[in-house]
Design brief:
By secondary structure, the chain is an alpha+beta fold. It is about 45% helix and about 10% strand.
Amino acid sequence: MKGLNTLTPADIKNWAHDAQANASQGRVIRRIRLLADANPQWFAVEIRCETGQSWSLGDTTCSFPLMSVIKPFLLLYLLEKFGMQVFEWVGIEPSDAPFNSLEQLIADRGYPRNPMINSGAIALTDKLPGQNATDRCHQLCDWLNQTAGCQLKLDEAMLASVRSIGREPNQVLVRYLAQQSRLRDPDVALDTYEQICCLSGQVADLARLGELLAFDRDLINPHHRRTVNAIMLTCGLYEASAAFAVRIGLPMKSGISGGLVAVVPGEGAIACYRTHLRSL
């Protein structure tokens, strides 16, 4: 693979063509109505380099909810707030079970396997600073916007759609986490999780978030950055993580809305959005 700084517009167009062709094998998520209603032809990509150079292509003005793509940045935020104490609340081990597996959580006796699966992210939202779910979401959003220079905001309509149907798998996880004394306030934890997953932006915002993990910055502890990248590499694509780590070798995180961010350590970040995307 070429270094990001050596890419040309022709390279980007060729990659985008291949990505769109591969995405046609996927499917639009159906259980959240507003995601199901999204235009399945939307596609956008942005690549940002340490040098400040950037490339973008496609429907770059489309806004989309980050959904599970928020998880590595939730982890980064809490590492910056609490340090490695975070791993008293959640593990670092990969899982070959689905992202919302209750069976995996039971086997692990309520200690979430890693921060990239739903149980792990919910356990971490319980530790976010803030007086209530809305305050916690706002504090995280403000920190990301200030630190990364992005413009995320809560999509209230998407949040209502998330809350209207399909909450049961996460509610089951929350109940079990509470039974195992892993949550201080189960209702607030779930509410917070749903809100942060509905933080929305454009592909440029996602690329700027990726830059937080791509190279050293004065605002981010380098050890925390490397820690998040390592967990993304081994866990960011759930049970497909190992295959992608061998094939591609980059820390990556996907979300059911069609967002994907990949980190090229020391060079930059690649963000893309495609509604017609295989759910990972």
